[in-house]
Specification:
Length: 326
Amino acid sequence: MSEEPRIDRLAQALEAMFADPGTPMPPADPELAELLRIAHDLRDLPDPAFKARLGADLLRRATMTTATGKITGRTIESVTAYLAVRPAVELVEFVKRAFGAQELLRTAGSSGGLHAEVQIGDSRLMIGGGEAWGGTPTPTGLHLYVPDADQVYQRAIEAGATSLHAPVDQPYGDREASVRDLAGNHWYIATHQSGGHIPPGLGSVTPYLHPRGADRLIDFLERAFAAEEMQIERTPDRAIKHAKIRVGRSVIEMGEAHGEWGPMPTMFYLHVDDVDAWYRRALAAGATSMEAPALQPYGDRRAAVRDAFANQWYLAEPATPRGDRQ
């Protein structure tokens, strides 16, 4: 039996259930029965808007199930921002001087140029590119939490960054400044002023995206990478002002593009336990293949996809015999 009619049947059942409270719960395939039971138990709640959101969420979950198969215990270990830029060597030196980064690795990249990895606080970043590299640069936004935002802002300026705005106390409890580095990355330098200098749930460095259509990007992340919403704040016109999205054990922040804060398509490197499974799931969620799963010279089995917002997602796992991937 095809998958599309199953979704159609669920949509029809939900519509009938919400339209007539007396409608009994219809029989359904085992994969959809749980979703209908949830709707049946909650259908008498008085808020029509809640019912509409419930129906949309159940349909989205059904789409995830039919498009990708039953969700298994497969995991995403980490999501690391990869800053691919022309002045890669200079960027490594900048983050060391400005943010006290520790250089962990520097070698030749698989596509030519430089590949480096640095540690800032408890977070790791990848930096690649260089003048000999032929790819497209992908500078991005990065939310950096430090004990003293004023001091680090000044150090970044002295290291060659350009100010986007000087330190200011924000209404959400952070003291925050912003700079642009020599490669075009935006650093949102902040000190959380309640409790520790890093808010609960975040690390020292968190990628920060400004997509046009943040709701659609979140939906893609949920379907492709089993992402979970940690926090969503909206403007009066319902645009996403700020969101924290958990992907595996990592977090990505974002806010709807506005004013000078425009989209900055970003490259990510995801360590996963089954490249082939996550690659298929991302394609089913609407991503475009950049490279099919294949063994790389440095030992990872890797695939890559591009989402509708031009973000690149490299999926990698240590090479193991196929029979060991259960």
